[in-house]
Amino acid sequence: MSEFSNVTIIKKANVYFDGKVTSRTVLFDDGTKKTLGIMMPGEYEFGTADKELMEILAGDMDVLLPTETVWKKFTGGDSFYVPANSKFNLKVNTVTDYCCSYIKEWNH
Questions:
Q1: Taking the chain, what is the end-to-end CA distance rounded to the nearest angstrom?
Q2: Other CB atoms closer than 10 Å to residue 67's CB: what's the count?
Q3: Does residue 67 sit within a domain?
Q4: The pLDDT of residue 105
Q5: Structurally, how many domains does the chain consist of?
Q6: Taking the CB of residue 8, how many other CB atoms lie within 10 A of it?
Q7: Counting beta carbons within 10 angstroms of the beta carbon of residue 6, is it exposed (0 to 12), middle (13 to 18) or buried (19 or more)?
Q8: Taking the CB of residue 37, how many other CB atoms lie within 10 A of it?
Q9: How many CB atoms sit inside 10 A of residue 74's CB?
Q10: 108 inside domain
């Protein structure tokens, strides 16, 4: 999906690591949320509350997921999941354009 229709966008930017990672929040009618952002080269650690799907639209990064011991390379067109309530590390090698989808998991 290259575009989103009928959404609400939060004007205020999400700014992390002194502006090296920024994103904007996109809200959908069904209550789901995504962020669209840019990461500048550098090393970062992020924490999750919800499960996340990270889609790399363009760029190049190495990722260490919470259950892994080996860094994996991701480039434009790749994606990966991060479990809820965890931390993951990124080594961003080139300017990276990304879309993060937040996935609510309900306990029944």
A1: 30
A2: 9
A3: yes
A4: 72
A5: 1
A6: 10
A7: exposed
A8: 20
A9: 19
A10: no
Distances 86 to 41, 51, 56, 73, 89 between C-alpha atoms, Å: 22, 9, 20, 20, 11
17/19 Cα distance (integer angstroms): 5
Reported as a single tens digit per residue, the pLDDT across 39-71 is: 999 999 999 999 999 999 999 999 999 989 999
3-class SS letters over 47-93: ECCCEEEEEEEEEEEEEECCCCCCCEEEECCCEEEECCCCEEEEEEE
Predicted TM-score of the model (pTM): 0.91
Domain presence at residue 65: yes
Confidence of residue 37 (pLDDT cuts 50, 70, 90): very high
CA-to-CA distance for 75 and 66, rounded, in angstroms? 19
Partner residues linked to 46 by β-bridges:
88
Query: Residue 75: inside a domain, yes or no?
Result: yes
Tokens of 26: 């996109």
- Residue 67 domain boundaries: 7-103
CATH number for the domain spanning 91: value is: 2.60.120.10
Q: How far apart are CA 80 and CA 51, in angstroms?
A: 11
